[in-house]
Amino acid sequence: MQHSFLRTIETGDTETTLTIIYEHTPPSRGQTGPHGEPLEPDAESEIEILSVTDEGGNDYQPWLEGVSFHSLCWDHLAKTFEQ
């Protein structure tokens, strides 16, 4: 499922608002055989960042600022499920 949120970060002396779009894949159980034996491993929950853009719609280079966007996405997802 795709999610998006805004995040304001400091870049030098200014603030930049970023739009972060990510996709969350929930965990799933692997397939089991007729006697309950695992045929496939369980899949863990995953987040894939699809885009990070600034106010002008330009791609943002997150590694330049040292911001952990995966952590921000996990935090956003947790808040989404709290509501």
- The H-and-E topology, N to C, reads as EEEH
- State mean pLDDT (0 to 100 scale): 86
Helix/strand-derived category reads alpha+beta
Q: Identify low-pLDDT runs.
A: none
- Biggest beta-sheet profile: 3 strands, antiparallel
- The span between the termini is 17 Å
Shape descriptor:
elongated
Helix content: 10-25%
What is the strand content? Answer: 35-45%
Number of domains: 1
Biggest sheet strand line-up: 1-2-3
**What would you report as the Rg, rounded to the nearest angstrom?**
17 Å
Please count the beta strands (DSSP E, at least 2 residues each).
3
Number of helices: 1
Which short descriptors sum up this protein?
single chain, about 80 residues, alpha+beta, three-stranded antiparallel sheet, 1 helix
Q: Could you explain the architecture of this structure?
A:
- There is one protein chain.
- The chain is α+β, with helices and mostly antiparallel strands.
- The chain has one domain.
- Helices cover 17% and strands 36% of the residues.
- It has 1 helix and 3 strands, in the order βββα.
- The chain has one helix at 69-82, and strands at 2-11, 14-25, 46-53.
- Strands 1-2-3 form a 3-stranded antiparallel beta sheet.
- A hairpin with a 2-residue loop joins strand 1 (2-11) and strand 2.
